[in-house]
């Protein structure tokens, strides 16, 4: 496959649109108290409101009976409706639930809530669409609409946490894991994503109280942003969407490779692991006859040993979920098994991701295309 020149802009940002309404989740505790004071209310009302939203997982003002009616009416300004479910689908005996959300301006984004025997996980979006242009990704095929606000990101998590608590996956469950692997490139929406990470991980009533070790942020390899994230003091897991170890192919599969090549991405991966003490996940979507060759498995393991270190990295193979009309297809099981064997025999941890929701358009961007 011949690499094509990059068409990505130098600044990975979304086009400007109608501003998203300011929301409680956009604000840190000090800003919340200032906003509440501006509404003519005492500062402690901000803490009460935050306790309802982050600890009790509700945005229903009528349920906040410890607040006087006039205060509830005023505080409604801090809880504008940000994301509305347009389409919801379930499969895997109800343990996988995918939601298509509509923003205030009609922008669409997706999240997937998944239940496992030992945990509940939500996969969320950070952008409506994506500008990274990876050709095998449904979201990349649709292009970038806009960045999601911090509030829109946090709302996906809060609503998932409330749904899991209320038995949406069968038995009531506590949301314990959040993965930024939905629509969009999280590090291209850096400021809002980092603010959302703080809201997600800070203890109630300042945040949702989910352990940073249960949060994973994916990236195609925006090297400066990886280094910046490492310095934030947020020990979240980094997942790097590598998809091939050689630059010639990666220039095509992940066009941002024309800006930061494989070696630069892996060096940033090592620095992140060293700074945070967290093992990094290398995401690798296996595509039939494209990137599933034994020599690529061997090269992948060699580069990870040399540039990252076997104790700092784990390879997460992803059976490709083909999109309608796509030329891309998943690798056969024997090819997948051989790829795993080669990487593991070289001393690098390698597993295959559990595949969920194929029958409900689970590849990110598919539901938005249908809806």
Kindly describe this structure.
With 371 residues, the protein is α/β, with parallel strands linked by helices. The chain folds into two domains: 24-78, DNA polymerase, domain 1 (Orthogonal Bundle), CATH 1.10.150; 84-370, Alpha-Beta Barrel (TIM Barrel), CATH 3.20.20.70. Helix content is 33%, strand content 19%. It has a ten-stranded mixed sheet, covered by helices on one side. Strands 5-6 form a two-stranded antiparallel ribbon. Helix 1 packs across helix 2.
Quick overview:
With 371 residues, the chain is an alpha/beta fold.
- What would the average pLDDT be, to the nearest integer? 91
The global form is elongated
What radius of gyration results from the CA coordinates? 21 Å
Fourth-level CATH superfamily of the largest domain: Aldolase class I
Outline the fold blueprint.
Elements: H1 29-38, H2 44-55, H3 69-75, E1 84-91, E2 96-102, E3 108-116, E4 119-123, E5 127-129, H4 138-142, E6 144-147, H5 150-165, E7 175-180, H6 190-201, E8 215-219, H7 223-230, E9 237-241, H8 247-253, H9 262-276, E10 280-286, H10 294-307, E11 313-319, H11 333-345, E12 349-352, H12 366-370
Parallel strand pairs: 4-7, 7-8, 8-9, 9-10, 10-11, 11-12
Antiparallel strand pairs: 1-2, 2-3, 3-4, 5-6
Helix pairs in contact: 1-2, 5-6, 7-9, 10-11
For the structure shown, list the relevant keywords.
371 residues; TIM Barrel; 10-stranded mixed beta sheet; two-stranded antiparallel ribbon; 12 helices; 33% helix; disordered N terminus; disordered C terminus
């Amino acid at each position: 496959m011949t690499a094509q020149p990059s068409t990505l802009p130098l600044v990975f940002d979304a086009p400007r649109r109608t501003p998203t309404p300011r929301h409680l989740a956009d604000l840190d505790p000090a800003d919340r108290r200032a906003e509440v004071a501006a509404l003519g209310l005492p500062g402690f009302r901000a803490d009460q409101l935050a306790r309802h939203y982050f600890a009790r997982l509700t945005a229903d003002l009528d349920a906040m009976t410890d607040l006087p009616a006039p205060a509830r009416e005023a505080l409604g300004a801090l809880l504008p409706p940000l994301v509305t479910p347009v389409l919801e689908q379930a499969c895997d005996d109800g343990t996988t639930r995918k939601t298509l959300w509509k923003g205030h301006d009609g922008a669409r984004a997706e999240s997937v809530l998944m239940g496992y025997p030992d945990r509940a996980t939500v996969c969320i979006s950070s952008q409506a669409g994506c500008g990274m242009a990876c050709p095998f990704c449904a979201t990349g095929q649709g292009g970038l609409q806009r960045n999601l606000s911090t509030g829109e990101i946090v709302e996906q998590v809060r609503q998932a946490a409330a749904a899991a608590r209320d038995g949406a996956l069968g038995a009531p469950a506590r949301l314990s894991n959040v993965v930024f692997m939905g629509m969009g490139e999280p590090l291209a929406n850096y400021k809002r994503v980092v603010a959302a990470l703080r809201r997600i991980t800070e203890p109630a009533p300042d945040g949702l109280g989910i352990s940073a070790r249960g949060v994973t942020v994916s990236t195609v390899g925006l090297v400066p942003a990886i280094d910046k994230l490492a310095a934030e003091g947020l020990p979240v897991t980094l997942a790097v969407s590598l998809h091939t170890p050689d630059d010639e192919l990666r220039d095509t599969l992940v066009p941002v490779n024309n800006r930061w090549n494989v070696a630069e991405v892996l060096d940033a991966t090592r620095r992140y692991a060293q700074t945070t003490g967290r093992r990094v996940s290398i995401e690798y979507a296996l595509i039939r006859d494209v990137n599933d060759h034994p020599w690529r498995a061997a090269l992948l393991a060699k580069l990870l040993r040399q540039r990252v270190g076997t104790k700092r990295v784990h390879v997460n193979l992803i059976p490709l979920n083909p999109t309608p009309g796509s030329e891309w297809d998943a690798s056969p099981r024997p090819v997948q098994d051989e790829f795993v064997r080669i990487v593991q025999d070289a001393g690098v941890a390698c597993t295959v991701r559990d595949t969920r929701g194929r029958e409900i358009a689970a590849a990110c961007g598919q539901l938005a295309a249908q809806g």
